[in-house]
Amino acid sequence: MVEWSDFERATIQDIFSKMEYEVVGPAALSRCLVVYPWTQRYFGNFGNLYNAAAIIANPLVAKHGTTILHGLDRAVKNMDDIKATYAELSVLHSEKLHVDPDNFKLLSDCLTIVVAAKLGKDFTGDVQAAFQKFLAVVVSSLGRQYH
Question: Which residues form the Globin domain (predicted)?
């Protein structure tokens, strides 16, 4: 079980309370698909992903990016048992969709960049550390079924 300081809990809750899900989610997923084009293989039914402009304008990418962020809400609300919170989703992504668990890490890195850009000077080193710890726990929980 992960230990969370009061600062970490408050920081994660604060970040998500200010999050523009319909902006941040699509931006993070689009960035991931552009920067790491091999991740596109899981989105073959999303249509045109031929270049950055097409990815950014793709409504299915935007919708899934928003869905991903709303999925992170579950972890924010269940910080003391993220592993159990994502057990079913982990099985879905590993056994049914066969998603490489490294892709969750790549997406979390892209999400960190987008959040940092949105928060600007408020994204201090301490805030970043708390956010990345949170994402690392989520990524570990989602990828756990593979190991």
Answer: 3-147
Of 39, 136, 143, nearest to 95 (Cα)?
A: 143
16-73 tens-digit pLDDT: 999 999 999 999 999 999 999 999 988 888 999 999 999 999 999 999 999 989 988 8
Structure token pair of residue 143: 């990828």
At the fourth CATH level, the homologous superfamily of domain 12-143 is Globins (1.10.490.10)
Q: What is the model's pLDDT at position 86? A: 62
* Residue 3, H or E segment: none
